[in-house]
Amino acid sequence: MRNTSNTTGTSWSRKGNRGFSLIELLIVVAIILVIAAIAIPNFLRSRMAANEAAAVENVRSITTASLVYNTTWGNGYPPSLSALGGTGTTATCDQANLLDPIITTAPYSKSGYVFGYVGNTAATLGAGCGAPGVLDYLVTAVPQSAGISGIRSFCSTEPAVLHYDLTGAVSGSEAACNALPTLQ
């Protein structure tokens, strides 16, 4: 039998295969750049929205843990954010084991936000507690990099109402926090 394959004409031969032209490569690169220009800003906005949602939930968790601390230990609200954490198996007034240790240990940051807890007006010292609790507090959540990890900052006080600031600034006092719009 004879091999009658066509080595000339329309078939690709090693000699005639020159790859892609420069114009074809430039068109492909331009298409990829247009897709990236559309996708990257949307990805960053969705990441910031996710960080803000996580920050709101963490502020709610801190507020709820403060209320639980107040009713459980009879020491007022916790004296510090670290009092709400703990790594042991037994909860105490000084390490209540109510929150994730990531939030309750320095640098108090999670999901692109830095959390703060300031207690005012000392309460009476509860039985078995190393430090007296407080009668009122301020919880704050501020973006680590404004405009990158989040835009809004959040705060809450003992009425357990969450407030937000569109500038991303930290609330300096309970009165400043309560003057901000409420989160619904």
Provide an overview of this structure:
With 184 residues, the protein is an alpha+beta fold. It has a single domain, classed as Glycoprotein, Type 4 Pilin, CATH 3.30.700. The protein contains three helices and five strands. It has helices spanning 22-73, 101-104, 174-178; strands at 109-110, 113-122, 134-143, 153-157, 162-165. It has a five-stranded antiparallel β-sheet with strand order 1-2-3-4-5. The termini are far apart. The mean pLDDT is 86.
What can be said about the biggest beta sheet? Answer: 5 strands, antiparallel
The geometry reads as elongated
The residue ranges in which pLDDT falls below 50 over 5 or more consecutive positions are: none
Number of separate strands: 5
Structural class: alpha+beta
The count of helical stretches stands at 3
Q: Gyration radius, to the nearest Å?
A: 29 Å
CATH fold-type name: Glycoprotein, Type 4 Pilin
Instruction: Give the overall pLDDT as a whole number.
Output: 86
Q: Topology as H/E string?
A: HHEEEEEH
Identify the strand order in the major beta sheet.
1-2-3-4-5
Number of domains: 1
Task: Give the end-to-end Cα distance, rounded to a whole number of Å.
Answer: 83 Å
Classified by CATH, the class is: Alpha Beta
Helix content: 25-40%
Examine the secondary-structure arrangement and name the CATH architecture.
2-Layer Sandwich
**What fraction of residues sit in β-strands?**
15-25%
